[in-house]
Amino acid sequence: MRQFALATLVSAVTAAVYGPIALLWWRRARVRSRTLRLVAAVEPEPYHMAELRQEATGAAAAELLLAGYVRIDDEGAAFLTGRGRDPARAPAHPLPAALLDAVRRHDPEPVSFGWIDASDEEYLERRSAYRSEREALLPELPRMPGGRENLLLACAGCAGIALVALFWLLAAALLMTGRPQGVREWAFAGVAALGLAALLSAEKAGRVVRERTDCGDPLGELVRSAPHPACAALDEEQRVLVLRSIGDRDRWRGADTVVHEDADHGDDDGDGDDEWLDDKVWWEDAYEYRASDEDEPDAAPGTPPNSG
């Protein structure tokens, strides 16, 4: 009788533990399938993908360089070409067009694309508007169930694991201390033993369910799948120039260049140097005058002293 009750109780607990795991598998598999279908239907726009990679300004700079709107010197400063100064000419895409307008606002002063990307407010507003417009076209991906971010569910899970562990110890003790009589009791004891073995693997089973139904980051993989066509078309020298200009955020500021007060201090220091030189000449003259006075006693008698 003990083996029958033990087998029934262990089977009920095992079903209670594995039931939610099976339900979680079913829900996560559905969400994974739906997520992959939604991402597969996305038609990526190259500049939007570059914006999601934080490379939109670099891609726009590459297009301007390839199209001949700008040139970049060896120090990363960008200058307009004759084509770039023509107001009737502009790229068709709004993002490189906004970057070209930013360079035109700074012309004829040299400016780096990194400075524009970090500090040009009008360019930043137009880039943000473009990103918001493209973000609205992306599908809303469903949230994967069974995450670890819910603190209440995590605490409930820990409490459930503790109760199952306590039950397993008690059931194992009862199973080991009782001696089955007859084939039927041995069968019930075998069922209880299998249930206890299954409970030992419950935590591993839940981990396997999460691993096999995890879809990862399909949208991120799509974003990182290929570089922007303009970036891919650059040769090695052009790529180095674009990267150098993008990386320079405080040297070439175009029309926003500020003359610091240090320059004024430098002029003052120069005046101080001139005054120091005047003082030095005065002391040298005084020294020569004093030396001539000391040499006068050696002069011939009757010679009048030097009156200076």
Look at the structure and give the mean pLDDT.
78
Order of strands across the main sheet: 1-2
Strand content: under 5%
What is the first-to-last residue Cα distance? 137 Å
| Helical content (DSSP H or I, runs of 4+) | 55-70%
Secondary-structure-based class equals: mainly alpha
Number of helices: 14
What letter string, H or E per element, gives the SSE order? HHHEEHHHHHHHHHHH
Gross geometry: rod-shaped
User: Rg, please?
Assistant: 41 Å
- Uncertain segments are 258-308
Largest sheet: 2 strands, antiparallel
Give the number of DSSP strands: 2
Please describe the structure with a list of short key phrases separated by commas or semicolons:
308 residues, two-stranded antiparallel sheet, 2% strand
Structure characterization notes:
The protein has 308 residues and is mainly alpha-helical. Helix content is 69%, strand content 2%. It has a two-stranded antiparallel sheet. Strand 1 and strand 2 form a beta hairpin. Helix 2 packs across helix 3 and helix 6 packs parallel to helix 13. It is rod-shaped.
Helices and strands in order, then pairings?
Layout: H1 2-40, H2 46-52, H3 56-67, E1 70-72, E2 78-80, H4 82-85, H5 94-106, H6 113-119, H7 121-135, H8 151-177, H9 182-200, H10 202-213, H11 218-223, H12 229-233, H13 236-247, H14 261-295
Antiparallel strand pairs: 1-2
Compose a concise summary of this entry.
The chain has about 300 residues and is mainly α.
